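User: Second chain of the day. Same drill as before.
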Amino acid sequence: TPNFWPPQKSYPQTIFEKRILKLSRFIGAAVLILSALIFIWGLAAGRDFNEMLLIAVALTVTAVPQGWPMITVAGLNKILKNKGLVRSGAAAAALGAVSVILTHKTGILTRGEMQVIKALIPERRGGIFQMNATVEYADNRMLMLSYGLLASDVIVENIEDEISKWIIQASPVNRALFRAGIQAGLDLSRLNKKFRKVGEISFSGFRKYSVSFRENPEGELWAIVAGDPEVLLARVKKIQILNRFENSLPSELAEIKESVDELARAGAKVLAICSRKIEDRRHINFQTISEAAVTDLNLVGLIGLKDPVRRDAREFLSISRRAGIRTVMVTGDHSLTARAVALEVGLLPKNRSLSEVVEGKELDALEPQDLAHKIRGVDIFSRVSPEHRLRIIEAWQSQGEVVAMIGGGVDDAPALRRADVGAASDNASDSAKAAAGLILLDGGLATLIQAIAEGRVIKSNIKKAAAYLLSVGLSEMVLAGLALLSGLPLPLAAAQLFWINLTNTFWSAAALSGESSEKNEMDFPPDSPSRPLLDGFIRFIIVAAGLVSALGVFIIYYFFYKEFNDIGYSRSVAFAALGVLSLFAVFSIKCPNRPVWEISVRDKHFWAALGAGLILIAAAIYLPPLRM
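Assistant: Same format as last time:
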């Protein structure tokens, strides 16, 4: 088992989590310090201890932004409607900041509906060796399809029904091998009876092949091996030509590799089908990999499988590129296959050279700092292992990028957990789903792009809500400070502060939770990871809105207190003024870069929340049970 397993390994915090934590600590510390200063100032000015303690506690509670969960939940519900299920808070927080997407090829950029397009078998005619698929060698072709059928790990839920109605549970590759064998007229039940399965080793991204151990009627044990040609051809000793096993020559292996490359250039995934007779089964473990089973192999042939690309892949890659998001293919397939698919879906511009494709063996030769330096120039990583995926994610993160990773296999779990946003398709393995923070219910890149777009809206709305609530909290603290400075009674009682907090929290969360962006969020690049969540302009708005609101309310309070000398009446007026001002302040917070009269508010939630907020303020003034 590789050293980087198990999936539950504790990883460092992602960049976005660090930004959230930094902001939370700053707000918490600032609120506590300001509340403590007001409390101490009030005591020094001779104010009542209990009154100042209640005010300090109320200011501490009300000044901390709340209502974010409602905004987040509303956004996550929109993502769910677009076939994305967000399972973790970290993924929800990071979605809007994603700047790099690492994606598999099969089932994400392609439809995951593989079909066998070519079956090549070794031939030798007139002393000339070649890989072909001719009628004269049809028996060998059927033998190879039989081996592919026996090696495919599938479950047919309704095998008693017609073949066209079968429900097949299997990986895209195994499903394609299974269908090719059945369509060729092979009978699976008869093959299983003739060649009894005594063990199997499932395909893994670590070893890149699977093994099915079969016993024939004569009691001989054979290992049927299917997998990556690059791995298996290095273990081939003989080649099966007709019914003979002949020693492979270097020139013949070179011819076989050229056939693999030719299929790969056509965008096909290539499997090598091999066999080996096990002479001494005492050295074979049927549950775990044994080198004895995969050495000195006999090559039976090559199978080329093609997976049509998704119709929407090109469109959504274009959207992600426009949004400043880098999409990188990370696949275990041949580099030529990966390049062909990348060109077809528009991930790799046609004028790029093959230098943008890096194979796993090249990654092994790179130190972490070298990979981090090179990472931005690579569009495709091919022949990668699960460990390579981890290294690629960490290299991007070391460059300050927020990374989303799409995967689905058992071996993808560590990478999905390490990414800022781990996304797994609905038909992914249980371990991949458990490690992922986002489930793509339709399995495509489109769902992830739509989730990122909604994540940007969530992030924007949270920033607006934070600015709004912090400005109200600041205005309450400044009000208290102005009263202490002028020697007047405090303008608001603790209960009134709590009520305004309740009103504003409900109002801002309800108003902004249903809010769509005033701009197309995917027409702009993501924020720089080094940029604070509340940037300089937002901080200016918080301070300016808080000070202006506090000064305006204090002038009203001062006038009414001096005019009528009634603290209860003056506090009610100040309470109403602050409540109404803070409610309407959201218009300027909604689009801080535009004049209020140019803001379009079409969302019914916005107006409903505004009306509810005004009713709550009025209720606290005019309803006797709630009167403060």
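The longest helix spans residues 445-486.

User: Great, on to the next one.
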